[in-house]
Amino acid sequence: MHTRIDETIAQVTGSAKVGNLYVNRNMVGAVVGVQPFGGEGLSGTGPKAGGPLYLYRLLSSRPQDAVGVTFARQDAERPLDAQLKTLLEKPLQALQQWAAGRPELQALCQQYSEQAQSGTQRLLPGPTGERNTLTLMPRERVLCVADNEQDALIQLAAVLAVGCEVLWPDSALQRDLAKKLPREVSERIRFAKAEQLPGQAFDAVIYHGDSDQLRELCEQVAARDGAIVSVQGFARGETNLLLERLYIERSLSVNTAAAGGNASLMTIG
After folding, report:
1. DSSP state of 243
2. CA–CA distance from 82 to each of 15, 30, 87, 117, 266 (Å)?
C-alpha cells in the first residue's frame, strides 16, 4: 500500500485480513526478525518464519513458560502495547470468577492469562526510517473436542485466554455445561452437530481423548478444502496446551521516510 495519510494506514490495517502489510516500501527482501512472513491462510499454519515464535514450533519439548520468557526479554528493551489484551480477557475473568469452587480451574485460568500474548503489539528492530511492528491476534474460532467436563473446561479456559470463539459439538455434555456458565462466557461458544463439524468454520482444533479418535479427527480436518488447520492432541487431563498455536501474527512494515508514497518503490528489487 502507498499512502501518506496515517488514518488510511490505520483503516486498512484494521480491516485487512492479511499476515503482512507493507506501506510505502517494496514487498521483496523481508529480513529475519524484522519482517516475519507467512503463517496465515494459504501461507501455512504459522508461526511466521523469522518471527519470535518460529523456533518453538521446531522443538519437540520446551519449558511451559518459554514463550513468555522470550517476550519478557524483548519487552524489557522495546515498548509493548497490551491494551487490547485486557479487553480480550474479560470472558476469561468471568470464567475464573465462576470457578470459585474449583481451585484447579481458577489456577489454570490465572496461568493461561499470564501466558497469553494475544492482543499485544511489539515494535521490531529495523533500520532508520522504517517502523516494523508485530501484532498477535486471536484466531477466530477453535474447535474443542472432549468427552468429559474437566477437559472441556481446560480447553475453554485456554481458548478464552487467547480471545477466540469456541466451537463445541452439540452434545448433552457440552449443552449442560454451557447452561452453567456465566453469560460472558456462553456468548463466546457456538455449537454444531457432530456430523456437521468438519464443514463448520474453524481455524484451529484442540482435542483431549484417545489416540485412535485423534487420528480419525485429523483425517477429517485434513480432508477439508482451503487453509491447513492445526490440531493439538492431548491425553485426558493434560493442561499443557500451546496457546501460541491459537494466535494470528500480523506484521506491519512502514517506510516512514517515504511520506509521499513513491509508487516506484514497488519495482525496486
Report:
1. G
2. 19, 26, 9, 8, 33
Cβ contacts of residue 71 below 8 Å, gap of 6+?
A: 52, 117, 120, 122
CATH of 141-245, one of 3.40.50.1820, 3.40.50.2300, 3.40.50.720, 1.20.58.480: 3.40.50.720
Cα dihedral value 20, 21, 22, 28, nearest 10: 30
Residues in the chain, total: 269
Q: Phi and psi for 50 in degrees, rounded to 5?
A: 80, 5
**pLDDT, tens digit, 9 for 90 and up, residues 131-144:** 899 999 999 999 99
DSSP for residue 8: H
The string over 199-221, giving b where at least 16 C-beta atoms fall within 10 Å of a residue's C-beta and e elsewhere, is eeebbbbbbbbeeeebeebeeeb
| Type of residue at 44 | G
Q: Among 144, 91, 136, 139, which residue's Cα sits nearest to residue 115? A: 136
pLDDT for 16: 86
What is the model's pTM? 0.90
Give domain limits for the chain: 6-85+118-138+248-267, 141-245
**Per-position DSSP letters for 160-218, written without gaps between them:** HHHT-EEEEE--HHHHHHHHHS-HHHHTTEEEE-GGGGGGS--SEEEEES-HHHHHHHH
